[in-house]
C-alpha cells in the first residue's frame, strides 16, 4: 500500500473535519518533517555560508 507524509497545507491548521485525518496511510506533521539531526549543518554550512560568501563577492546565490 502506498502512503504519504504531509507537512504543509494551503489552509492551516488543517481543519479537524478534513478527511486526511482519517486515512491510515497518511502521516500529518506540523511543519516538522524537515527537522533531522543534519538540519543545522545543511542550513548553515551547506546553504547559508556559501550564499553569504557569494553575496559578499557580488555573485548569484548557489543552486541548492
UniProtKB/TrEMBL annotation:
Residues 2-33 form the D-isomer specific 2-hydroxyacid dehydrogenase NAD-binding domain. Keywords: NAD, Oxidoreductase. It comes from the Bacteria. This is NAD(P)-dependent oxidoreductase. It comes from Aquibacillus rhizosphaerae.
Amino acid at each position: 500500500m502506498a502512503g504519504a507524509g504531509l507537512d504543509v497545507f494551503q489552509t492551516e491548521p488543517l481543519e479537524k473535519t478534513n478527511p486526511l485525518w482519517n486515512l491510515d496511510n497518511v502521516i500529518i506533521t506540523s511543519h516538522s518533517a524537515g527537522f533531522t539531526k543534519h538540519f543545522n549543518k545543511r542550513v548553515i554550512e551547506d546553504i547559508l555560508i556559501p550564499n553569504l560568501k557569494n553575496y559578499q563577492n557580488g555573485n548569484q546565490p548557489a543552486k541548492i
